[in-house]
Specification:
By secondary structure, the protein is mainly alpha-helical. It is 47% helix and 7% strand. It has 10 helices and 5 strands; from the N terminus they run H-E-H-E-E-H-H-H-H-H-H-H-E-E-H.
Length: 295
């Protein structure tokens, strides 16, 4: 970046509702525009203003592993709004969660995983903290037909509520280690319990064949750099959420994480969709009981 660059940040939605700020004076004062917004509506708004005020626009965007750029020159090229992006191909949820077979699936899963824990979780807790009873009533009504999702949401909020005022660095390491255990061991062990390696489909074919790849559980290894990086990064994310100083000694974090012991995993009777055409609801046998405890 140019060391002489001077910026003037604005915490405003890029949309017509803020025309009082994004007015004639604002647009006339620009030589060119570089777009890095996160939705089509905002892109179209900026593009329309650049067309109206005859401004050069550098448009850019990402979608998973894909990216695009478009240089728009007044009176010389198409504008962003003159063309339409092709329809996005969505990845079935059961493929992302249980049966990924392409690198794009794992990247999208990781993005959703991060968003759910470190963005949606704190945001939901913020709503809960403003009025706990109102939040529980509204979320229970919204997800009353989806007990598994309701349980997940309530457990996330409950976990943050339990630690928000008492969290230490040890708490953050324990939460990170729990996340590793649940995600890379317990969930996979449950999947293999429901669909063991020898499981066959109704047509007699091996379930784990073709695009369904047999997974394996992971046990935390303090000598594995990838394992340690996950714990270290995750613990620091929790530290940030709880407004604690960052953890700096990675070897100490790895040592503390390796000292945490877990009981052998006990599988449950759960319903897991076998494909995107499967219409049954995914749930565990104790979802309703757990929801009742949390509410």
């Amino acid at each position: 970046m140019n060391k002489d660059l001077k910026d003037h940040p604005l915490k405003l939605r890029v949309s017509p509702e803020n025309d009082v700020v994004f007015n004639d004076e604002f647009w006339d004062g620009l030589d060119a525009v570089v777009n890095a917004v996160d939705n089509v509506k905002a892109r179209l708004f900026v593009d329309g203003r650049c067309v109206f005020y005859s401004k050069h626009l550098f448009e850019s965007g990402t979608l998973g592993t894909k990216c695009n750029t478009q240089v728009i020159v007044p009176f010389e090229t198409q504008s962003y709004g003159d063309s339409q992006d092709p329809a996005e191909e969505s990845i079935p949820l059961c493929t992302l969660k249980n049966f990924p077979y392409q690198i794009e699936h794992t990247i999208q899963w990781a993005r959703d995983f991060f968003e759910g824990i470190f963005v949606d979780g704190p945001n939901e807790y913020q709503k809960y903290s403003e009025n706990p009873q109102k939040y529980i009533t509204e979320i229970s009504k919204e997800l009353r037909q989806q007990q598994s999702q309701l349980r997940s949401r309530l457990e996330s909020v409950s976990k943050l509520a339990n630690y928000v005022n008492t969290a230490t660095h040890q708490t953050c390491i324990k939460l990170a280690r729990d996340l590793f255990q649940d995600t890379f061991h317990n969930m996979i062990a449950q999947l293999l319990y429901t669909f063991p390696p020898e499981h066959k489909t109704e047509s007699g074919q091996l379930f784990w064949s073709g695009l369904k790849r047999l997974p394996k559980t992971l046990n935390f290894d303090p000598e594995d750099e990838t394992h340690v990086n996950f714990i270290f990064s995750t613990a620091n994310l929790f530290a940030y959420i709880f407004n604690l100083e960052a953890l700096k000694d990675k070897s100490k974090v790895a040592k503390e994480a390796s000292d945490i012991q877990y009981q052998p995993f006990k599988p449950k009777n759960v319903v897991i969709k076998e494909s995107d055409k499967d219409t049954k609801e995914e749930k565990a046998e104790d979802d309703e009981t757990r929801v009742a405890e949390l509410t």
